[in-house]
Amino acid sequence: MMGCGDEVAATQEAHMTFPTTIHASVGESIIHKATRLFAGCVADALHELLQNARRAGATRVDIRRFDRDSATILRIRDDGRGIADPTKLLALGDSGWDSDIARSEDPAGMGVFSLAGRHVVIRSRPADAEDGWQVTIPPQEWESGEPLELVPAIIAKGTEIEIELSKAWIDELGEAVKNAARFYPLPVFYGEERQAHEAFLKEAVRVENWNGCSIGVFLDKYTPHREQARINFHGLTVPCRLPHVHDADGGRGWYAKVDIVDAGNLQFVLPARKEMVQNTALDALREACQAAIFRTIAREGHHRLSYTQWLRARELGISLPEAAPFLHLWTPRIAETNDIFPGERIAGEPMVIMPTLSANIEQCVDRALKSADGLGGSPVRAMLEFAGYGWYNALPRVLGLSFQVETDNETFHYDDGASVPDDVDSGRVGAITLELAVRATADSEEPADILAFPADVLIVPTDCCSDLDDVAILLGTDCAITPGELASLLEASCFWPNEDCDADSHYTQQAAFEMQARFAANMLLLGEDAAVLERVREALRQHVTWLIPKDRAISMQAVNHLVEAAFADNDDAPSVDAAE
Question: What stretch of H or E contains 401?
Fold first, then answer.
């Protein structure tokens, strides 16, 4: 039986069996997973082999496809320095490149494994050797770890690789060669044809050099798609999130693309190199791109950047002028879209900043302001992105507004989001007054001035829908609006199409609303009889007149759902048709 002392000793002895240190290592079994390191597409293989050719000092790369013994072969040949130590060829993770290339390009020693699982023949002859060598790698030997025989080969200086192609690689080959050669710095020949090449920073409005990179600044108001290549590494391109700076009102935009020449701290995610490693070097590159964009804007001397972006430029040591001091004329929103459409540009004259409100409020405010003087300047749409600029802060602004409505029974105020009293129906009221609270400047400590303007119409929908049954239409005593004008105002203030899958088409909904709006306007302004007659005339125009022969006239009479019709230009007609 073990005592307490024995248990302690046994526990201490067990604790001492753990090592005192550990270190990172690569297990030998990784070689048996070599065929799974790459996605297995021909594009990946081409990129890796072209990068190796460039590092080897090649001046051109020749790519040929041919048939041999019922197989399709791809041969890639370069005139570089060749592979001096073939033992490094299949040493996973050991690139064999010299220290300068290792520092500037971060080679991983995995490139040839993009061919893993395929029948491959490699020949090479270093520049300072009289003889070359050849090795054949059958598909099953990539993961076996078995020794492969090197044999002498007659070959000119450089390296030649032959790959037996699968059908998938054959189908993808032409496009893959074209894409691989597009930004590659060396001439690439596919057969006898030299592949098209272009500079990655082509069409850049300005290029800066930074820490072994070239940063190109491009103009485009829209943010580039997330899959668009933004970084080029000697022909290998990858998407990457880089800054996009744009005018606050959507006029212009700038984005950056980067050509990496010699920047070892910028690294790709291995082995396929399809994205960048998120590290401090990439953060620094993003900041450099943003600074390059701001310097490009500074050279233009004008911009419409937000105040936040302007401050960011100052943080990066770049002095920009304030955004150009103009705003857009305030135009009322339309309920159907609820979008804000900028009016004409206003600059060099007094302006008053207007708030953004519901469509029905803005439509009625616009009607009141057009018939009044005394606002003190052109009403302009607020641009909160400019808040902070001296010129913008100095403008007077409407802090809030409401309509005061006087009826026979009471006086009430209506503003954005409010509702009218339950006992108020559509029709004439005593008076409608638009009241605006205006502050002289953004920083003013004085109380806001209250400006009052007469208004003749107030439209108050209880919901945004294509139905006027629950809309209160209030008209001032002296309102002289026409039925057509009121119908248009109702549509701009209230029409919102139903977008459910089982709803009528937009055209049908809008036509029905227009008819309802005209009827409501006629009822209020012309009376019930005139409204009914106009509705009948409209129905006849829409549904009946197309049936009447050209140059003929029909007279109709309808009483208690009995409709009589006759050709008015035919007095000898034997009878009058009637329908119930």
Answer: strand 397-406
356-to-138, 431, 438, 465 alpha-carbon distances in Å: 71, 25, 15, 20
Listed in order, strand segments (DSSP E) in 264-382 are 327-328, 345-346, 351-354, 378-381
- What are the Cα distances from residue 425, in Å, to 67, 402, 546, 556, 579? 88, 19, 39, 36, 38
DSSP assignment of 468-485: -TTEEEEE-TT----HHH
CA distance linking residue 49 with residue 64, whole number of Å: 14
The label of the residue with tokens 């990784």 reads: 30
Asked if 63 and 177 touch (Cβ cutoff 8 Å), the reply is yes
Q: Is 335 helix (H, G, I), strand (E, B) or coil?
A: coil
Binning the chain into helix, strand and coil, the percentages to the nearest 5 are 30, 25, 45
Residue 139 DSSP class: G
**pLDDT in the model for residue 536:** 83
Mean pLDDT for the chain overall = 87
Please say whether the beta carbons of 474 and 457 come within 8 A: yes
Tens of pLDDT, residue by residue over 43-83, are 989 999 999 999 999 999 999 999 999 999 999 999 999 99
| Inter-axis angle of helices 483-494 and 359-370, nearest 10 | 140
Listed residue (318, 369, 319, 360) closest to 338, CA to CA = 360
Point out which residues pair with 68 in neighbouring strands: 71
